[in-house]
Amino acid sequence: MREDDLRESSNIEDRRGMGGMATGGLGIGAVVVLSLIGWAFGINPAVLINGAEQVAGNAPMATQGQAGRRGIPDDEVGRFVSRVLGETEDVWSQVLPREAGRQYERPVLVLFSGVTSSGCGSAEASMGPFYCPIDRKLYLDTSFFQDMQRRMGGGGDFAYAYVIAHEVGHHVQNLLDLLPKVQAAQRAARGEGDRATANDLSVRTELMADCLAGVWANWMNQRHRNIDDNDLQQAVATATAIGDDRISQAAGRAVVRDSFTHGSAAQRVRWLANGLRTGTVAGCNTFQR
């Protein structure tokens, strides 16, 4: 993906190498277990980890890592992220008012290394990139890009851009007031012991974010003609690798559809492709039965 002509966004908060946050002794084993529980139940792992620290009396203590440098980073990876974020801002500032009558509010993307804090609790590298609807910020430890290459069979600039655009897709969902409605419906379902419905709502939300990432890519390509067949293959490889069925198989677990929280490999590829093909928010209605 050619990205040298994309505008760089200054809405970056760079906390890398600035200490992060003390976790009060919550071990890495506990963090991993809570992350897996969040994955299984469709709950933001940051919320679970923060809650566990509070219950244990080990509330996170802010350090200098809580206030990062604002602006365009000066390293290669940081500037790449800045360019992708800038292009999401330019695209959604046009598309969202046109299609939904909503003004686009530009989110801050927090770059961190290892651990930091978010409005949703602790942000751990092991969680992968995520969006916090409470503070409306995106969180990314760029070591995730290396993990994509080593463990997920993905990688490449467009694949990395897809990951960022997916999280921006959650921000778009929040601006459309969709996320609060989904979360309320999930709480109601869990309160009734209906885990399958709660997980299904999570799947539909994640697939819609995949589709919205495709919408962004469609518009970016119209503006810059910077996506080729190799880029599309990268994105498909990444979407396939992070399908719930592929993750279960890689971990040696049985594939149980009712436990899916992000969608199968085939579903993720299909909805990403749908966004790329239609270029419209209306084409991303994963909640239509």
Task: Write up this protein.
54% of the residues lie in helices and 10% in strands. It has one domain (12-284). The longest helix has 30 residues, at 195-224. The two termini are 35 Å apart. Mean pLDDT is 79; it is low at 21-43, 47-65 and 244-249. It has helices at residues 28-41, 45-55, 76-100, 143-151, 157-175, 178-191, 195-224, 229-241, 244-250, 265-278; strands at residues 12-14, 21-22, 61-62, 69-70, 108-111, 115-118, 121-124, 130-132, 137-140.
What's the layout of helices and strands?
Elements: E1 12-14, E2 21-22, H1 28-41, H2 45-55, E3 61-62, E4 69-70, H3 76-100, E5 108-111, E6 115-118, E7 121-124, E8 130-132, E9 137-140, H4 143-151, H5 157-175, H6 178-191, H7 195-224, H8 229-241, H9 244-250, H10 265-278
Parallel strand pairs: 1-5, 5-9
Antiparallel strand pairs: 1-4, 2-3, 6-7, 8-9
Helix pairs in contact: 1-2, 3-5, 5-7, 5-8, 6-7, 7-10, 8-10
Q: What's the β-strand tally?
A: 9
The H/E string reads EEHHEEHEEEEEHHHHHHH
- Overall number of structural domains: 1
Give the N-terminus to C-terminus distance in angstroms.
35 Å
